[in-house]
Design brief:
Blueprint: H1 18-29, H2 32-35, H3 43-63, E1 76-77, E2 92-100, E3 105-110, E4 116-123, E5 133-138, E6 148-154, E7 162-164, E8 169-177, E9 188-193, H4 205-232, E10 242-244, E11 253-261, E12 266-273, E13 279-285, E14 300-302, E15 313-319, E16 328-330, E17 336-344, E18 353-358, H5 362-365, H6 375-391
Parallel strand pairs: 6-7, 15-16
Antiparallel strand pairs: 1-2, 2-8, 3-6, 3-9, 4-5, 4-8, 10-11, 11-17, 12-15, 12-18, 13-14, 13-17
Helix pairs in contact: 1-4, 3-4
């Protein structure tokens, strides 16, 4: 069974195990993601692929079988240090919830202090990513006393902070991007449907069958779409990134993408003269478009964390050993992977270049003014990263 052939579970019922057999077949078909990919050359990447398959299953469950309903929505933190897929930004706290255009909702509470605070509405369900169309998105909201915020979601316009809902079923994606991981606070908000009465109706067999269908659809369609994108990273030349947009990503972001290959005795020097932007970041990713372990290693940097040279150039060193350079991106024992850069509301799209050198030649390849850190400073930086993911609710 190919990934594009989602099994149809309607009418199967629960009197026999056929519905479970179809779910099991959908899970089994996912093996092609790892063992039918001609770009995968080694068993370490295949091992990461097995972990990726389990992360996809774990990511699908709370958006399908364990999902809240559009009449009684709850926020779901759907990407974290444990669940990775679809190029999660290491700076971002991602939240999802189901909605319906016949309803009116309020998102209320403390706005927090994240650098970027964005709410997007989509038609349809994330599981059906090809039809998952953007309806509206807002990032500039009025903030009340004591940092309180009240956002209305509805089909019809409302005064104040309003985000338009789709006709029928839909989703919201709520993003908070942090620059200073040590001081910026996450929002403390809830979502409620106007007029909701409790308790909600009891689940029926049809409800569970419909959620089973969403589960297998999620496992069929999303990994296939993700693979199309992460395989396109290999279209970039070895010495630079290429840029495009992602139709299920953030509309105002420009995504730079490429691959890296770095042996134990090598280093890669990435250079770019940065644009003026409200936000930018760069990070290393696995072959499967997962963020590397950013809470335990310095595998990403953003515009607050990075040190820009006296000449206005951002230089980062990708290597397996700490080069003592402030802008180190830790390859962490993986000789190859993907590299990405994001520019948000930038005035231009400068292209980073990548140069391969011997690790032993780094000193003569880098300007003398390149910002440095000591071994003790590095330990402090890494401890702060590990602590910050808990404080930012990103663990």
């Amino acid at each position: 069974m190919s990934l594009s052939e989602a099994p149809q579970l309607s009418g199967l019922g629960f009197s026999d195990p056929k519905i479970w057999q179809e779910i099991s077949r959908a899970i089994g078909a996912m093996q092609s993601i790892v063992w039918s990919d001609p770009l995968i050359k080694d068993d370490l990447t295949r091992a990461e692929g097995v972990r990726y398959l389990t992360r996809l299953i774990a990511g699908a469950l709370p958006m399908s079988l364990d999902s809240s309903s559009a009449d009684y929505p709850q926020f779901l933190h759907f990407l974290s240090t444990r669940i990775h897929y679809g190029l999660p930004a290491t700076d971002c706290y991602y939240i999802w919830a189901p909605v319906h255009g016949d309803n009116v909702y309020h998102i209320k509470g403390d706005r927090g202090t994240a650098r970027l605070f964005d709410i997007e509405t989509r038609q349809g369900h994330f599981a059906h990513i090809a039809q998952w169309e953007t309806i509206d998105r807002k990032s500039d909201f009025e903030i009340g006393d004591d940092n309180q915020i009240d956002i209305v979601l509805s089909r019809e316009p409302q005064p104040g902070n309003w985000v338009k809902l789709p006709e029928g079923d839909g989703n919201i994606i709520f993003r908070q991007y942090y620059y200073d991981w040590n001081t910026e606070r996450p929002a403390d908000v809830t979502i409620e449907r106007v007029g909701a009465t409790f308790p909600p109706p009891a689940l029926t067999e049809k409800d569970i069958a419909d959620r089973c269908q969403l589960f297998v659809d999620w496992l069929q369609y999303l990994p296939e779409r993700f693979a199309q994108v992460y395989q396109s990273y290999h279209e970039a030349p070895e010495d630079k990134l290429i840029f495009d947009s992602i139709n299920f990503g953030w509309e105002d972001l420009r995504y730079g993408k490429g691959t890296y290959q770095c042996a134990e005795d090598e280093a890669l020097i990435m250079e770019v003269t940065l644009p003026k932007a409200e936000y930018w970041s760069t990070q290393l990713c696995s072959h499967f478009w997962e963020a590397r372990d950013y809470h335990l290693r310095q595998t990403s940097l953003n515009g607050h964390q990075a040190e820009v040279g006296e000449d206005g150039v951002f230089r980062a060193v990708i290597s397996h050993r700490d080069p003592g350079v402030a802008n180190w991106l830790d390859a962490g024992g993986q000789d190859r992977g993907l590299i990405s850069i994001r520019y948000y509301k930038a005035d231009s799209t400068p292209v980073p270049t990548i140069k391969r050198v011997k690790f032993s030649d780094l000193e003569k390849e880098l300007p003398a003014s390149t910002p440095r850190v000591s071994a003790e400073q590095r330990q402090d930086i890494l401890r702060d990263r590990a602590r910050s993911v808990v404080r930012r609710n990103c663990e």
